[in-house]
């Protein structure tokens, strides 16, 4: 496509007037940027003359802004760079900068910066775990153009350029297959069966298709569905955003039992159906950037021969994409092969070495604990050597299954995170998101907007950090303070920045000390897990910190305190300090504005503080319980009871603030987030554990012999 050699525009505070220009071909990315630029100019009532041009020598996504004789020269290395440059100019004008004094030279630190969404397409074809309230409440949203326009616009503003949409089997909701007409799921359905925090919906294949278990909320023909998703992908492309669909296997929601199709790995009819689905998915959606796969929990990874995991993947996804490329020889389909339930050698031999286009790996970089430390060790320990040996890049899946409710924001943490990611080309890119939550529209606010806010707007600061600092980790504190000034007039942005950052250190600290790798193992906002329930005193005694962080577990500390290690009591003191600083900071700024979003933000920061205070006294109480069981010292038992009574007070403070803003919800991976219900009763039970503790009687869960069982 021909690009713009130059456009010279005179922009005024009332209109956009072309002064002298030559347009060979306009780009939708530039048009999006110009819309934002004009809005900023109108808002600030300034007049500027701007010259736009592309210069490929700047590089992919790079841009320059400089003033020359009264004209602002905006150059981009490509259409996306030009869009970013125009957005940058608009932002600087909003901040009050003099456009004539600007000198900006920018290039992406990380070229592929993305978000991840487990997309709840339909009750009949769920994503990996649609058991939570978030999935149920967002089915209709993912079939709304208003939702996608707002979401994708915001992504572009925060400099994300990749969106990965994750679904077990999206094909039945998005395709009309000539050879399999009966598998198409017309309309949009939401589940009506009772929410269940034990069984993943995808394992109820027959029940999912029973009309008594779903309700149609939107009538759509398959032709309308196809046109809808073509529009979404085209709109994303016009914002410089690539869309990938990533699947788990083997699932055939909507096709089960039809045409001989099932989830058997050895069934040739399933293989043929999957191959045709992949082919038609590529052909149907010309703006689809790529596909990703998971050799998931629903495959037989011990099968050998022609039905082995990787050969099945090649026979379905690999050959399906090749079939599509045979009909569209110029088509490129990027591929992400997740490292899960497979091995590197067999992946290379049976799939990766055969793939005709760009292919990269996918890895859970922080497991499920994005908010823990900014340099998780797992990729370096498990996969980096393979990537170097085979000269293959890897997408880092930045899984946030830690914080869903409260507004988080620590620029220093995100900046360090970006700088600690492996370098390109080993790093193919990153996508940040959750398995246990759908970041669509918020659905729990007790004082909602109408329509309800996009989560990307409610959590604007967090999403800004993970996008903008991926593009430019050099953005400093002053930049983010100025962003806060734009959002919240008359608020002390310096104090707000500091308070927000302090509050945001609480969950990472407790996550690192009470380390639980995966999403179903732990929700710090609820102190609970899927299988074990509430994490009691005994859980805190049993579990250990993330290895390599210089922290002691309760058992190790009671057995032998170490001077050069951070003890449980040190962690408790750190949590208390963070909580106290946060509460003091909120007190200083809370009355500076009556803006609703600011008020809600302050309440979220208070919630973080009370949660930190709760965990501080819970750690002290748990430590004292174990000390009593070892020593029999009754004074230590009394100390434990007192600490846990204090913890209960803090839980009630936490619950009061949280429940004043948010309704109860079911978290898909860890059960109900009900601060004033079962969780409160469980917090009370901790005190009884201390009262009932006996000298030299250790529950099974804290028996030192179990340490080996759990890999301590």
Automatic annotation (TrEMBL):
SUPFAM superfamilies per the UniProt record, alphabetical: beta-N-acetylhexosaminidase-like domain
Protein name: Carbohydrate-binding family 6 protein
Source species: Coraliomargarita akajimensis (strain DSM 45221 / IAM 15411 / JCM 23193 / KCTC 12865 / 04OKA010-24)
Protein keywords: Hydrolase, Signal
Keyword Transmembrane helix in annotation: no
One MF annotation (Gene Ontology) recorded for this entry: hydrolase activity
Coiled-coil stretches: none
Superkingdom: Bacteria
GO annotation, biological process: carbohydrate metabolic process
Membrane-spanning ranges: none
Signal sequence interval, chain numbering: 1-20
